[in-house]
Cytochrome P450 (Aspergillus homomorphus), 230 residues
Amino acid sequence: MASHFAVLYILLSLPFCVSYLVSWGLYHWANRHSSSRDVRLPPRLPAAIPILGHTIPFLFDSASFVTRVTAYAGKLSCVRISLSMTGIYLFQEPEAVAALWKHPLLSSPIFIYTVGLRYLFGMKDKPLETYTADDTGPFRRPHSGTNVAPHNRSINTQRLQMSLSPRHEPGHRHHPWRPMPDLLQFFRDHVGRAILESLLGPLLLNANPNFLATLWEFDEATPWLAKRLP
């Protein structure tokens, strides 16, 4: 009876073993025959556990796991990992990162704004049209050929500059320079506030004085959202 179970176990596990070996072969072949001029999706990292994939090491040992899988033969690389019936692409290769930042969708923060507003804050499509219609670009001078009025720009550089101006700081005339112990805290309190005011105006923070602190609390939880956890 035990021998029958052993044979059944081998027969059931054989397809998974073959699939795993084939995946390893394709993974190594893709890495060894790729070049910086190739335009292709990153290779899929083989997973020994079906369905779960790389979920366990990604959840509990993220930093070392990502560092390990995004290197091949001593060089930074790109890879696709499997997480419970879905996948995530990890980009570390310098050429790939440079190409991503040159992509039109990443040359302006509008795309990132719309993704965050739609999927993180639940904004409906109708109000999102104001952002998607903004083709003025991220710079102070709008792109030529745009039909968006200056006051309708999603990124109002003039409001941002005014919010960052030191004249809004009390006592700036007598002490134009003020040492600060934490540069990150400066960006959170001052630059973050200026960006919010340039995007949404001053009414949001006037009505919700603790909004910025709550926003940074939410920001600290985003790594868990990236791991597909509630």
